[in-house]
Structure formats: C-alpha cells, structure tokens
Fold these 3 entries.
Entry 1:
Amino acid sequence: MRRLVTVGMCGAALAAALTAPAQAHGPDEGKPPHWELKDSGTNVRFRGLSAVSRNTAWLAGSKGTVLRTSDGGVSWRNVSPPGAAELEFRDVEAFDGRRAVVLAIGEGEASRVFRTEDGGATWTESFRNTDAKAFYDCLTFFDRRHGLAMSDPVDGKFRILSTSDGGRSWKVLPSDGMPAAQEGEAGFAASGQCLVSSGPRDVWLATGGAARARVLHSSDRGLTWKVTDTPIPAGDPARGVFALAFRDRTHGIAVGGDYRADQASPRAAAVSGDSGRTWTPAATPPPAYRSGVTWLPHSRSAALAVGPTGTDLTTDGGRTWRTLDTGSYDTVDCTPDLACWASGEKGRVARLER
C-alpha cells in the first residue's frame, strides 16, 4: 500500500549519498548512509516487514511473533497474537501504527490471517484455510480496504484470496482467469514480496520451483491474469523469482536466484518497463541470491535489494547493482519520509541511517 507525504530530501539525493565515496564525508558530515542494527530483543527470523514511517514499523516472524516499534527501533513491543506460537508469520501489511494484517503460512489450517485495530493489543483471526491442498505465501493491499493473498497452486492454478473490508473478511476468487501453473511451480514465502501491488488495481505474483521463473500480472485486482517468463534462473525447486517491486504500474524489478548457500545465482535480477509483459536481465546483477527488493521513495531509478549475503543498490532502475553491505537480511521496505528498514534471521532488524 502506498502512502504519500511531503519530504525534504528526495530519493535521488538519498541514492547519491549511498553511492558517494567514503572519503567525501568529512569528520563534520558524519558517516555515509548505512544500516544501523536495532535490538529487537529476540532471535526469531523476521521475513515479514511493514515500514510505516521513520518511527513506526511492524515485524512478523517465526514462533508466531509480531513486534511493533513507534520510536524508530529504540524499543520494540511484542504484540504477538495469543496462542500463535506454533505459527509461521511471513508477511505483514500495516496501514499505520494501530492497524495491521499478518499472514501465517503453511499447509491447511496453518495458513491464517489475523487483523488488529489497536496496535496489536487485540487480534481477530479473519481467515483460516480449510483446504489441505492450499498453502498461502504472501499478501498485499491496494488501499486500506482492498487486498489479496495468494496460495500455491490448487488443482493446477494459483489461488487468490480477496478482501474488500480491510482484512475483516476474505473470499476465494474464481480461478477462471488464472493461467495454468507449471509442474512444481509455487511462490516463495521468503520476504512477503511474492505478491505486490501498485495503484488501485494492478498486482503481480512471482513464481519459482518449475522449469521457468515467471511473473503473473492482473490489472483488475486478481480476477484475470497474464503470465510472462523471466530470465531469472529456474529449473529447480530452490530457484526462481523471490520478490518483486513496482514503483508504479509500469516499472518493476524482480530479484531471486537459488536460495541454497552453496549454489551460484547468476542473473539474480531483472527489470520491466511495460507492467511485467517483458523482462530484461540486469546487465550487472547482484552477486548472489536476493530475497527482498524495494524502490527508494520519490525516486524513478534507485532501489535496494537484500539477501543472506548482503544489500545492493541500483541507481539506474535495476540495470546495474552495487553491493553496499554484507549483512544478512531477508526483506526490505522504505517509507515516504525516506526511512528504509530491513529484517531477517536471528532477530536482525535495521534502519538506514544517514
């Protein structure tokens, strides 16, 4: 979901600061922009992240854990839903500091959706999957009311769940407009970014695990879809597109590769300038598998990608990438007031400081 505010520093300026030589920053100018770790007080893995502002962010992770900060990560409040310790939260979409929706993944009834309207003081379970063949991976919202969640293929097609009341209730959409899935094709619940939206109606779904890594696009909130092959490596259950980011309904970036640490990931990023109808491999891709990606706010050309071996920056719309940091992160998200957050294994969470 996109939130618009006026800021004093544009994304292009932040990108320039990120790429400036270290020696250009004198003793009076402080350090160049860098990730600053925040103490989450836990060691669970946070693959779900929703950044609201420089001060407010939500984390969703293993062991049914949901955390929220309202002071820029100085302190974190454990707002986990009661009785959820056996669940794996992999995605969170927050509207503000009080309202958020979280997705638990897994086979059958392990896939659930929870919603809070009071900052996590109380939660309502608004969906519990009862189909043993379904496995939900990601969710996204177009606005405060309309959102979708996606499941791995059921009876040969990806399944789409829809809400029109902010996540209070959900219904499975008809599958007539969904193309057939490849054998072994699925989504990766690695960063909460295998299903992303931009604007009031456009949504994209990333796939892997099959012969070809593909991106599906819908311009009518999930009723009908068109599918396109990408150049990101495929042909193995561990390979494919892991995350997508669209800065508008036209310009997108896909990242992924092979998540196994002992396997190379050439062509780990691709770009699209036509709403995902075609994809071009990055000329200089990230050096390894990447699981999360986000555009820098108010920028037409800068984006960050993260993975277990580091963070990379592009300043040319995804065509070339440069490594900025070698710390491990699973997902990344930026806000209109130019705050970028990242989270991952062992309770890691950081905010980009400048």
Note: The first helix runs from residue 11 to 19.
Entry 2:
Amino acid sequence: MITELTVEDLRLMQGLAQRVTAARPELVNGDAAYGELAWNWGKDHAAFAASWRRELWFDGGDLVAWAWARLPHRVRRGDGTVKDVTGASLAHQVHPGHAGLVDEVIAWYEATAGEVDRSALPGVADEFGLARWKAHGYETDPDALGDTGSWTQLNERDLGDVADPVLPAGFRFRTAAEAGPAAAVQAHVDAWAPTAYTAQSYEGVRHAPAYRADLHVLVEAPDGTMACSAIMWLDEANRTAEFEPVGTHPGFRRRGLARAMLLHGMRLARDAGARHMTVACLGAPGHPAARELYYGVGFRELSRDAPLVKARA
C-alpha cells in the first residue's frame, strides 16, 4: 500500500528530531534535522510526492523511528534539462532508546526500494546503527567520501555573542515578508541554478511546519536584485534555529554579503528566542567555500554523515 507522507507525519518526525536533539544531538541523521525535514518536504512535496514512501514506528503514542524512501524519479529543472534519478535514497531516524528498530527500518527499506541501487545516511556517531547497516550488506560510499564527494557535516554555535553585520553601501537586509514570494523564489533560483525550485516549491515551503517569513532573510542589491537569501527554522522546544538553505547569486559572491546575512540572521533568531544555531555544509576537502564561510562566523563541526550504498542484486 502506498502511504503518502503528510504534513501530520512531518510534524511527528520533527517531534522526534526535537527529542533526539535534546538527548543526543550528534545522533540526528543527515536529512533528519528539524529544519531539514521541513525544507525538503515543503519544496518537493508537490512535484515528487508520488515517488516517496514512508513508514512510522510507535511506542505507545510516541513516534520512536521513521523511514522516508525516495524512489527513482525524473527531475525537470528550470533551464530545461532533465535528470533521471535511477536509485533509491533513504532518510531515517531512530530514537537512541529504541536503537534495535534500525533492523526493521532496513528491512522495510529493502522491501520498499526493490532491485535498484540504494543509499542511506546514518551518522558517524551511530556506531550501533552503522554496524547493523553493514550487517545488511551496505558499504561506505567511496564516491561520496572522495575529495569532491557529497557527504555533509552539521555545524553549531551558540548565540551569546554575535558580531555586528556589515553590508556594503547600497545593500540592505530584507525579509521574505517584505520582499514577497516572487523575489524569494528568484533569489533561490539565482543562487542554485540549475534547479527544480519554482513558485509552487516555495508555496510548499511556506506551508511547512515552522516556516516563518520573518525568519526568511535576503540581501537586496542597489539594483534591486536579491543577492543572497537564507531560511531559518526555529525549534522552540530546544531554543535552537537552523539555516537551510543558504545561497548567494554568483554575480555577488566574495563581497561579504553572505557573512553579513548570517550574522543578521543569527541576531533575528536570537530575538525570536533561539540560543543555539546550526547549519549544514559539504564536508569534503574539495568543497571548502561554505565550510570556511560558516567557520568564519563562529560555527564548528558537531556531526557528519556516514553515506552508505548497496548495489542492486
């Protein structure tokens, strides 16, 4: 039976992310953080939900594990190009108090994905989970862990002392509430082209739990171009906020705009009640730009992915 990943499911999954964050933040898996869940569901739900499958595990009334499989699908990007995703990928989370459920997660994924190449993203700190994945035939992904690979690390810092943001003359901070949907969409498309992100994607993001237009920040250039943007997701239970995504127009890079936007965003998050901030980036040596940007405003590594793969039989 095909089970749609609903917004009610998403709220439950975010709740588990909050509980794991409170107890063992280093065990929050890639794509399983509070804000990451909202961003991924919001931007892709309208276009790709038909290729999604999910399963939830409960202990009494509490969600203690979930699995979100993305099956093969086709991505049409704004520049007219098409990308065929031929394998399956899994985002998942198991509460550390119910670690043994990882075997059920793996069995469900195997049955759901079928005979295609499969990937999964446990974290390096989850020694028990990694051992179970490997017992089921999953291996470290050599491509992902190469010098230009795609593994990610999660970075953190506290918000006790945030430097003053400084913008070049003529630039100014805006929020999505002020700039409007069209500007917010264009800022993301310019930063991440080629991308499948559209006005429909942003509409989904706006309806994702925890989205706030006043915590969606942009930098406007003197000519009216939105030079960079970032969304912050506030987890009120843990008093932490997450940047996801962060992007800069290629024509406005290396001017200090992203640095200023991050500092401004952290101050806004702190005013909204956050005391702690996170942001993810590519961790491979060949992708230093974002990591150096985040380190430059005080972030340091908290955790990292351990990307795994299993080839079709």
Note: The chain has a mean pLDDT of 96.
Entry 3:
Amino acid sequence: MLNFKRLAGLCAFSAACAVSSTALAQADAKPQALTIVVPYGAGGIVDNTARAFAQKLATELARPVVVENRGGAGGMIGMNAVARAHDENTLGFTAVSPVTLSPHVMKTLYDPLKDLAPVAAVMYSPVYLVGGPKFTGKNFKDMVDQAKADPDGLSLATAGVGSLGHLMLEQINGQAKVRITHVPYKGMAQMVPDALGGQFTLMLVNASAPVNTLIQEGKLKLLAVGSPKRLPGWPETPTFAELGYPMANMTSTFGFFAPASTSAEFRQRMNAVINKVAAMPDISKPLTDALNIMSPGSVEQFASQVQREYVDNGKIVKAANIRAE
C-alpha cells in the first residue's frame, strides 16, 4: 500500500530541489557580452576611444563589454557586421563616414539609413593635413606648388576609400587642379608609423595625442586643419576654409550605432549611459586635451545629423564625380 504522506513529502522535496537547481543555474549564468565593433584596425583614435568606453560601459551595464576590430573598405566591413547583427548585444563605434559618405562612393551590403540606427554622438574631431619626412615643403602653398610641378609626385594617405579624408583629398585635387595620389589604409593606426617611415608624402588624420606630440617634436609638419576655426593648440595653422578650400574644411564626427532591428527603448537606454560615460573626466579630458570636441546629445539629434550629412555628402560626391579606385 502506498504511503501517501511519504509520497507527498518526496514530491515536495523534489520540487524544492528543482527550484533550487533553477535558482543556482540562474545565479551561475553570466550576462551576455556586449560587443562594440570598431570598423578600423587596432590602435587608432576610434579603437582607443572605443576601448576606453568599453571599460566604463561594462561597469555601468553590469555586463562584459568587448571590442572587436573589423577593418577594411573605409569602415564598411565592420558596419555591415553591425547592420547584420539583429540583436541588442552589438553596437558599432565609428566615424560617421561609413554611414553618411562611403555608400555614395561604392556599393555597400547594407542600407545605411535603413539597416543602422544612430544611438549617440560622442565627439567631433578636427582633421589634420600633415607632411611626413618625405615632404620637403613648409606649408600648404608649397604642397600645391610641388603637386603642380610634379604631377603624381606627391602621395597622401587616408583611412580608406570613401573615407572623409578621401573626400577632402578629392576636393583639394579638384580645386587646385593637381593630382596627389591617394593611398588608402584600413584605418589610421598604421598610417602614422608608415608616414614616419616615408611610405607616402602626406596624410589626412584626426587630431590625437600621439599625432600632436609628433608635430610638436617636428617629426610631422602640420599644414592645415579641418575645423570651424583655428585650433587653440595650433593658432598659427590655417583652416582649409581660410586657405580658400571651404569644401575641404571638414571634421569627423564619431558615435555609436546599433542594428536597426533593435528597439527604440534599447537605443534610448544606451544613449543615456553613453552620454553618462562621455561626461566622465577620465574619458573626456584625454579627448579634449587632444583638441577633440565632445558632442553629446539625444538619439534624435544624432539621427538628424546623420541624415543631414548623408544628403550633403551625396551632393558633394556627385558634383566631384568621386568613385572608388
């Protein structure tokens, strides 16, 4: 005969064990990592900034945050990975050019306005035109004079085909009626050592502490800056607009993007925490000391900026007849 009291006790014990096992499993389960895709090589301003943010975001979100470099094609390989992620565990941190500029220059595997969603702008960065050891001139005029005297004699490196630097170079070539050879890279990190090694004559590169130091040491020559006005760190250096090249007077905006499939609530939540991190002195001070300008704002403000730049860049690319090499 069944002992119902004993059976009931066993059932209760089994149920308690099941609940305890579930609770332990949940306690042992680690939150899934958030991946920040950097669409450039390691070591440049984008990569370094992303890694600084990753450390703070891991604390704020109470989950692991990892940075993954996917360089190439002017940032479009990495941003395609973001667009295709289709989850809320992936963000891209990038200059906006793979979204607002590169798609006008070459075919992309993603629709920049439909497959990617702006989350938060972080900063905008002046763009330096600098000469390396191979450049024998002293200023921008010398560069133009040399380019006219020796067509194809000067070479200029940028972060890639379809990058902002590429667009700026085409503006200079077109207006000055010269032919400075474009040398595209997968990002900015390798450009600086290659410039010092004489692999090319000139480069267009974002403001950063290492580049500032090399200019101060005389190892690189600062010829012009893309900026709304002269920079406090380099008051003697003219902007491209002052030199008569207003269409080349550009800055780089950097920010976070999510797959468009993510929820609006997720993007708003990430915007808030990214803005919080950007305001931390140990994040903002190294960037502003290097002459970058922090530019926090809402999801809507960043989305509006991206839309506006996409339209404006399309007009510039079409007018200049810029194509992938």
Note: Residues 21-27 have pLDDT under 50 and may be disordered.
